[in-house]
Design goal:
By secondary structure, the chain is of the alpha+beta class. It contains 3 helices and 4 strands. A 4-stranded antiparallel beta sheet has the order 1-2-3-4.
């Protein structure tokens, strides 16, 4: 909890990202790419974030990740 407060005031704003990277084949799966298969990296702090090519946006909050997974499961069920 305290770490989140410190990051909110002094942490990185994640305003600059790398170009999206898509992993193919037997490449090592990093956690950020496990959700969408594509990820971006913050150029300031190095943190990795899942990237959605369909929406062309970074999925950076846990709530957005839950919504993304729910939307994927709804598409597969239909």
């Amino acid at each position: 909890m305290m770490t989140k407060l410190i990051d909110a005031f002094l942490g990185c704003w994640h305003s600059r990202y790398s170009f999206p990277v898509t992993l193919r084949g037997s490449a090592r799966r990093i956690q950020a790419a496990s959700l969408t298969g594509t990820y971006v990296v913050c150029l300031d702090c190095g943190k990795e974030f899942p990237y959605d090519w369909q929406e062309m946006r970074v999925i950076d909050s846990p709530a957005e990740r839950r919504d993304y997974v729910a939307a994927l499961s709804a598409k597969q069920a239909a």
